[in-house]
Every structure is written in C-alpha cells, then in structure tokens.
Design brief:
Largest sheet: 2 strands, antiparallel
Helix content: 40-55%
Oligomer: single chain
Number of domains: 1
Number of helices: 7
Strand content: under 5%
Shape: globular
Order of helices and strands: EEHHHHHHH
Length: 187
C-alpha cells in the first residue's frame, strides 16, 4: 500500500459515504476500491487502521469487525458486487455483535453467505456517528493527531465495538431481513 506523504495529506475532504473528514489523498497514490462507495483518503485510513490491527496482537481480533463496519458504511451502488458486499458484511456484524460468535466462526459463515444472492438494501440516510476516522485518530494515523493520542488496546477495542454497534443501529430498518438471511446460512 502506498503511503502518502504528510504534504500529500495536507488538505482534507469529506467522504461522500461515511461523511468522515479525511485526508485528501491523490488517487495515483491510493486508488479507491472500485465497487464500494469510498474515496482514496478514506480507503487509505481503512487500510492503515487494518495494518495497525494486524501489527498489534491485542487488536487482531478487530480485523473482521472493522472490515464489516467499514464496508457497510461505504455501500456503493446497487450493482451485484456491492449488493453482495453489504449483505454479507451486515450478516458479519449481526453474527459478531448480536450472536457473539467468535471471529473464526463469523468468517466461515461469511464465506457461506457469499455464495448466495441478495437484494439491494437502500442505505439509511446516516450510517452512524462514528467512522474509520475516529479509529484512525487514536492510532497515530491522522496527520493532525500526535502519538500521545494513541489509546491503550482496551479503549481502542471499546471504540471499535461502539462503532460497530452504532453502525448496526443505523441499519435498523433491515435488522429482520439480515437476521433472516443469517438464519438461512446457519440452517
């Protein structure tokens, strides 16, 4: 993953999907994902937060949860790949925060879920009050946050779980649909 320089991140913009204030990153340095509704700076924040989670054994268990949350906050447009992404990632959140399943089991269920077809869920008007930028701000990743802002692992985990819960709540109108899809996978 290309690492934008401090100069390349001096300006900021809002992500059109999650509404986070993010570094404006040159698309040549960090192209956005082609099927989800994100922009280079937001995609870069997600990748660097994920790298932080992989580098810290105390945070590795957040990898799947934060991926699921990020993806449903960036739903894209009603095309097959985005439809599948939103459905499978919402089920992943359901299995983790509602059913309290371990990450390994969630990943196995998500693989099964990805083999089925789903319908488009129109995203809610707001996707939750927390975003990837909130996690990035505690990981020394945002250029305007000093190293001392990094939180201990327990507080970082608590913020990630709050992000998941508030994002899940934003999709409340589809909870029954997602639960039905998830039950069909588990059957």
């Amino acid at each position: 993953m290309a690492i934008p320089t401090q100069d390349a991140m001096q300006s900021q913009a809002y992500c059109p999907s999650c509404k986070a204030l993010i570094p404006q990153v040159d698309v040549a340095l960090m192209p956005a994902n082609r099927y989800i509704g994100t922009v280079p700076g937001c995609w870069w924040l997600f990748g660097t937060v994920q790298a932080r989670h992989m580098a810290d054994p105390a945070l590795r268990s957040l990898r799947t949860l934060t991926t699921n949350v990020y993806m449903v906050q960036h739903p894209g447009v009603p095309e097959r790949q985005a439809v599948q992404s939103v459905a499978v990632h919402l089920m992943g959140i359901y299995w983790e925060i509602i059913q309290h399943r371990p990450e390994r089991q969630v990943l196995a269920l998500m693989q099964l879920a990805a083999q089925r077809e789903y319908r488009w869920l129109d995203p809610p008007p707001t996707l939750g009050p927390l975003t990837i930028a909130d996690l990035a701000s505690i990981c020394e990743l945002a250029p305007d946050h000093p190293a001392q802002s990094e939180l201990p692992a327990a507080e970082h985990q608590a913020l990630a779980w709050r992000w998941a819960e508030t994002t899940w709540q934003a999709w409340e109108q589809y909870h029954a649909t997602v639960a039905d899809w998830a039950r069909n996978i588990q059957a």
